Amino acid sequence: MAQINNMKRFLQAVTIFAILLITTSPLSAKNLNEDPSEALVRTIAKDLRCAVCQNQSVYESNSDLAKDMLEVIRDKVKAGDSEASIRDYFFQRYGDYIYLEPTKSGMNMLLWFGPILGLIIGGLALISAFKKWKKNSVKVEKPKNEDDKKMQARIDEELKDIEV
Question: Which helix (H) or strand (E) holds 56?
Answer without folding.
Answer: none
